[in-house]
Amino acid sequence: EVCDCCPAHLLAGQDATMAFFRNNDANIRDIWYAHIKDEDNYADTVFDIDPSDWYIAGCPSTGPDAAFTSKGVHSVWSSSGFGHPQVLMSVLDPTTNEVATDFLSSSDLSQFTPRIAASGDTIAIVYEQIESPITTSVIMWSLDGGDSFTVPIDFVKDSSGIYNAPDIAYSNQGFDLVYRDIFDASIRYKRLEFGLPASVGSAAEELG
Known about the structure:
By secondary structure, this protein is mainly β. It has one helix at about 200-205; strands spanning about 10, 15-20, 30-35, 40-50, 65-70, 70-80, 85-95, 100-105, 110-120, 120-130, 135-140, 155, 165-170, 175-180, 185-195. The strands form four sheets. A four-stranded antiparallel beta sheet has the order 1-2-3-4, with no helix packed on it. It has a four-stranded antiparallel beta sheet with strand order 5-6-7-8, with no helix packed on it. The longest helix has 7 residues, at about 200-205. The model is unreliable at about 195-200 (pLDDT under 50).
């Protein structure tokens, strides 16, 4: 059965819809993928893409996110199946159902609520990171279809608050970022732009 309160994510393609969701199999709460044929309105392919086998006797309230990229479909989620919360990323070829899953950034820090946005080879992922007592939001991006990513960059750059629940969208050769400031109960915004040609260095400066 589907996990009680973890939100699922849908991607609509030209010929099919893809669903990513957290399943609950006797409290093993992995991320699963479903391929839904538009003409039949049912999932003809459903399988586990998450190797973490996270056992938790309660809903973790954190679901997956996904985006079309030049390599197929990239999806991200957080799991504590390997000992502490970490972000995992999968790359799925929806034509063959081949999937590869790995850690986005192996770290001893706790990582939560990842979100992804992309356009072709340009991919960016944001997530909440806790380095006690600091809770902040970070970003990683790739300009080569996910073959390589930058190191995690704190795009809030303020160690005095608690900044979480980031989200991201691609538009006009850049990314729009939002995140939550717990102390003043506000939603804040930043813009990450890539020049032409795209440059990791110049993009990093935009986050200052």
